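Quick start: read one record
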Amino acid sequence: MVTIGMVIVAGHLVVEPNQRQAYLESCREVVEQARRTAGCLDFAISADLFDPARINILERWESQEAVEAFRGDGVPGDQAAAIRSASVAEYDAVEERMLS
């Protein structure tokens, strides 16, 4: 299957280990909203299995326009304040190969 224009957002955030669970809980509404948004193919924010400070990010969108329409002003202030560092990037995908 070929999908033209798909955007993948992937990377990770680092928060204080003792704040990670609270940060993830504060993202629940964002994940629910994203998954209901037109153009969202997948949206996940999850705890890393090995690093207690790391939160993994994975999003798939039908288009750049869909990403931008959802993103709005970005991360709310209280969530942004909890982030010690971040490495998140967007990737344009032109082909999708289903593995299972």
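The longest strand covers residues 83-93.
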